[in-house]
Specification:
InterPro entries: DNA-bd_dom_put_sf (IPR009061), MerR-type_HTH_dom (IPR000551), MerR_fam (IPR047057). By secondary structure, this protein is mostly helical. The protein contains seven helices and three strands; from the N terminus they run E-H-H-E-E-H-H-H-H-H.
């Protein structure tokens, strides 16, 4: 007899459904404070449907995507439980929506302002004014990629910098995976 989708699950049911040993689930409870099964008398665990969905997401990131426990903890901290639940479901649209909402929260717009297409790729603001030393070697400052008088990079160079940032983030992810 199958349980309702809203029913609580025992540790053995969750372990069987997700193809995980029970001791791994107990260990993950110590590493991910977001997993909080209800415990009854005798210490028997009952997992809520939300806990099971979160564990699916954690399992996917650890086993299928190759993240470390620290990497998944960071994802949870930065994006919240709903992000990993969506990842566990394979719901790409939800993952993108959560990422866009998070990005919108980080970059407050002035009232009535609309983001320009070229600004959407920019992750942060430069701390130093770019000059010909880094881009367009041998060119005068007004001939280089920085628009004269504005102190802003051209659209192409912003895209190149964004691509380099993504490459660096991927390198960092791979290094974290090795540690």
């Amino acid at each position: 007899m199958d349980k309702s989708p809203d029913a609580f699950r025992t540790i053995s049911e969750v372990a069987e459904d997700l193809d995980l040993p029970q001791h791994v689930l107990r260990f993950w409870e110590t590493r991910f404070t977001q997993i909080k099964p209800m415990k009854r008398g005798g210490g028997r665990r009952y997992y809520r449907p939300q806990d099971v969905e979160l564990i699916k997401g954690i399992r996917h990131m650890l086993y299928d995507q190759g993240y470390t426990i620290k990497g998944v903890q960071k994802l949870l901290r930065e994006n919240g439980n709903q992000f990993l639940i969506a990842v566990g479901h394979g719901d790409v649209a939800a993952v993108e929506a959560i990422a866009q909402r998070k990005q919108a929260e980080e970059v407050p717009l002035t009232p009535g302002a609309q983001p320009r297409a070229e600004d959407e790729l920019l992750v942060g603001q430069p701390t130093a004014k770019p000059n010909r030393r880094f881009f367009g070697l041998g060119k005068a400052d007004d001939e280089g990629p920085v628009q004269a008088g504005s102190g802003k990079l051209s659209r192409d160079n912003r895209a190149l910098l964004q691509e380099a940032l993504f490459d660096l983030l991927e390198c960092k992810r791979l290094l974290d995976q090795v540690r």
